[in-house]
Write a structure and sequence with these properties.
The protein is an alpha/beta fold. The chain has two helices and eight strands.
């Protein structure tokens, strides 16, 4: 078996239209694929945020194992954490932690966290 990295990260959302607008219009992502969620009448969207960061927006399913699924956070690579955080806030995100410079192990970096439209935690991460 050879794993080449992540294909996408799935996020259960309560309001798919609001989340779709946030990730596309707000953060500049592009819908690369959409398809029916079984016979529920709901649609699943794959949104490419760039740099091999793809989010799958899954309408909340009231039944099954993913009914309460979430991620702890998703970290996306950034070239300018402060600017990306500001863009997310203008798109409706709420600040969880302001941009800050830090050293993790021996790696100098900058990061910030925001909450997206469904309360999901998004980290902007820049290696310096």
């Amino acid at each position: 078996m050879a794993i080449n990295g992540y294909h996408h990260i799935g996020l259960m959302v309560r309001d798919v239209d609001k989340s779709l607008a946030f990730y596309t219009e707000g953060l500049g992502g592009k819908v690369t694929m959409s398809f029916p969620m079984g016979d529920t009448g709901k649609t699943i969207y794959m949104v490419d945020l760039g740099g091999n960061a793809t989010v799958e927006l899954l309408p909340q399913n009231e039944i099954g194992t993913e009914a309460n699924a979430r991620w702890a956070h998703i970290a996306v690579t950034s070239n300018d954490v402060r600017a990306d955080c500001d863009t997310a806030i203008k798109a409706g995100a709420v600040v969880k932690s302001e941009p800050r410079d830090l050293v993790l192990g021996e790696t100098a970096c900058c990061n910030a966290f925001v909450y997206g439209p469904d309360g999901e935690s998004i980290e902007f991460f820049q290696v310096k």
